[in-house]
Request: fold
Amino acid sequence: MSAPDLILHVGAPKCGSSALQTMLTRHPDLRDGAGRRLRYVALRMPEGKYTLIQGGMVKRLGRASAYGYVCWPNFGPQTDSAPILAALREVVESGQRGGWVPILSCEGWINHPQIFADALAQMRYPRVDVVGFLRAPVEWVNAAWWQWGIWTGYSLDVWLKRRLLFYGFADNLKAWAAIPGVRLHVRHSRPDVVQKFVSLYGCDLQMRVPGNASAPASLIGFLLRNRAYRTTPHDAQAEFVFQRWCVMEPDRPLWALAPRHIHLMRPVTRHNRELLWRILPDADRADLFADPRWTREEPYHEAIRSGVSQLHDPADLPALHAALAGGVASASAAAQVQMPGLPGPLRAGDPVEQWDPVLAGMFDHLLALDARLRRAPVLEAVRRTGRALLRGLPGGGRRNRL
Reply:
């Protein structure tokens, strides 16, 4: 496979992006099967000035992040796109001069092909690999509801009517494919986006990275009742911290949809399936449509029969208490501090109003320990290098020597 000038991982959201971004943050410098250098570059935009991050700084900032990775910002109503596109041009030019291929990632870029079409045209259309991962529409909508929709205050039916066309990934990918110089790679997000990505480029890397897995129903219920831990639909830091330290027995996956929702999604599924079949290469079609959820509804029947996940069942809270206690113990050991005294579990039948203060105190300990562990490497690096660490960060207003 010929080398591109740029690799863009564009998403989609809820399709393994955090796992891939975590891997690239931990291993920002790779080589492909032909020995070419691939370099993961991230972007920060403090005070509207862009700062490109590479190499060891990518690793350090990833360790300092509650999410465990760094990436690029998405485009939104309040986002100034000019610094992002200026940084994009600079990265491409640096890679061309230095003989390496930049990898950039943002899970929301799949929805913005026109912004990139205009930017790439101004750059005279470099060769770009656009890499995406997808899930079948019904499965994706169910996951999106638990990730964003349930936190909006709307009912599922209202949210679906307002956001149904949000699954327009096939139309967006068609627009991406029409950009001169773009080569499209779209695979299924399961079972492992990390291995699919490294196999695509022949990288010699074998690792599994936990992504933003579905939270247990008891945790979602606790966070809904205690919104200080998840203030907005996109504020998932507490869940990432929980997943990093706490272990719970496998639970029934979260489920929210009824048969009427499946029926409502039929035209969306059909349209996206037919369009993707037309625009994707054979290998991508084979990988993506191996999932029967693109063509059949039977895979959802068991979840539908089991019903909507119950979020506020007191019987589930002893297991959540045990998971938090184990997480606090593990984080205390990692921080080499004495484990704080924790309250014991209540009785399984006690109401959630009595459980919540106990669980909240444990969560506070876990978040504090995690923040301490994430800050420690950065503070140590600052102590050792002083201002040299800051000077090593290329930023807006200076030529960035990537």
